Amino acid sequence: MAVPFDYCNTEDISTAIAKWGRIISWEREDALKGMILVKARVTDLIDIPKSIRGSEGENFEEESWTCSVEILLEEMLGGGP
After folding, report:
1. For the chain, which terminus, N or C, has the lower number of CB atoms within 10 Å?
2. How far apart are CA 34 and CA 81, in angstroms?
3. pTM of this structure
4. How far apart are CA 81 and CA 70, in angstroms?
């Protein structure tokens, strides 16, 4: 995910993915401004959107941004039958 640097914290990331997942952990490198890696638990991969939109306020004049979401690894929990 690529998010504004000010919003790279656990609370804002949790809010951004709350509709489709729960954070397990996340990492950020200062050299890669705004780029974060989130490890999350989701019910179904189809629920994960291709992008996340955010804004600073509720008015249309406020600053807004869009960040893409990429699935890097899929690991099923539990075992097979």
Report:
1. C
2. 41
3. 0.70
4. 29
Q: What is the pLDDT of residue 22?
A: 93
Give the whole-angstrom CA distance, residue 67 versus residue 40: 17
* Confidence class for position 4, pLDDT limits 50, 70, 90: low
Alpha-carbon separation of residue 54 from 4, 60, 77 (angstroms): 10, 12, 30
Distances in whole angstroms, Cα of residue 43 to Cα of each of 4, 18, 21, 75, 78? 27, 12, 7, 12, 13
Give the whole-angstrom CA distance, residue 27 versus residue 50: 20
Q: 3-class secondary structure for 21-73? A: EEEEEEEECCCCCCEEEEEEEECCHHHCCCEEEEECCCCCCCCEEEEECCCCC
Q: What are phi and psi of 55, to 5 degrees?
A: -150, 160
